[in-house]
């Protein structure tokens, strides 16, 4: 349906260097309000929209001026992490595309999944509130704080014409036309406004139905990302992938006897923990330890990778498990490289059909190199998984620390420590970074 209400639109201009900034935004908004009133606008149903960095500033404005707005619209943008989505003072729509090379879908996943609620209780405890749980507990969250991902849409399609150099360099080739993208953006904008306007509003119900459908469609798009992210980033504080990796390291002769359970600890404390193994009625129980090294991104910039830089996985060696069992021979010398290759295969098998098709058509590969062994655990802790991005693909090299089961010259006996590729980082490569050489706007324009 077309928008049934009269829509007044004001474009905010006259920023220094033509770049929106918080200092000038308030004056620009006040000026726009005055001009709209002078032109005959009678209502005070104001909505403020911003694209990309402009959306970040819109989020800041809405936080400090909630009484002046009925809602905000973030186009290819998001509320930065210090602003909790569920506690934001006015309704907010987060709208992006899954082929956005600057506002990555992996950043939008965080917005969809969590409202980043930091609760202070006897110290600082990070307890993320899930948008999915918000929707289950309060269906109005679907309409008040919708997070919508449009398939096939990129960053630049929120605008038109020649893209700025940075957008042309980093944005991905879209799967839909500019006309189609603009139609989707217009429809979601209409639905959000109609669902948010105060009563009486005869069009709100239909708009809410549309937003409910968009919620389900978005969930379907990002579900593979949520699943892979949840392997290592979850409320149970366990790295499922490290548990799976322990069985891989054990080898084909032993994996059926191994039950592995992982505990995640902070990077600062990983040096104090070592894996343990116990006999059980069916074989061996291994208690592994892991740490996720997250990227340092205090400014909450979405153009850079959002996924873990590595998993620091502390596991038992295949020989240590075989010796404990006593009647089974260790199978082969499996390495961290082998685990990383399995991770990539696992992720590719669980990638969405659309993302897998794009990757096979124009994505660059991941190349895995032999482990670099490190003798002392302290040096292994300080090392960092090598992730080298270039025009040929992603080059991955792991650091390992493996000790003999019979001596302790270089650490505790029977250990197999790996700096592992995060499955979520591998999925981010498939969805975004692998497409940035053969699938950016820049390459399609040349």
Automatic annotation (TrEMBL):
One of its GO terms (molecular function) is hydrolase activity. Residues 22-109 form the Alpha/beta hydrolase fold-5 domain. It holds the Pfam family Abhydrolase_5. It comes from the Eukaryota. This is Alpha/beta hydrolase fold-5 domain-containing protein. It comes from Potamilus streckersoni. The lineage of its organism: Eukaryota, Metazoa, Spiralia, Lophotrochozoa, Mollusca.
